[in-house]
Amino acid sequence: MRVAQIYSYWYKGKWTTKQDTCKASIQLDKARIWLDFNECCSYDEESEFYLFSQADIVNDSDGNDVELYEGMKVSVFDDDLDESNQPDAILAEGIIIKNTLENYPNVKWLIRLIKIK
Fold it and tell me: What is the dihedral of CA 116, 19, 40, 28, to 10 degrees?
């Protein structure tokens, strides 16, 4: 089980919060941000919404800092296993949105998935 860690972080001359997610355990097609696909929190006719981050900065699968903002397009992944029980990532694309859901007051950012591969 993966767990994201949140901590204070000096970034571009000011203190902010960073959420360290996880590097990929398998090769990905490009740098992606880890998303727990078990954390679907809402949906509408067009897409599903997932809890994404409690902080403004996350790291991608290559370890790079990514500063989140409203409307940002991101590529995400989650670990999975194929039919042969071999590692096989779930890949998706999404848009970052500010969390306005009252049920999750500690979460700052959600992701609205627009494409699952």
Answer: 20
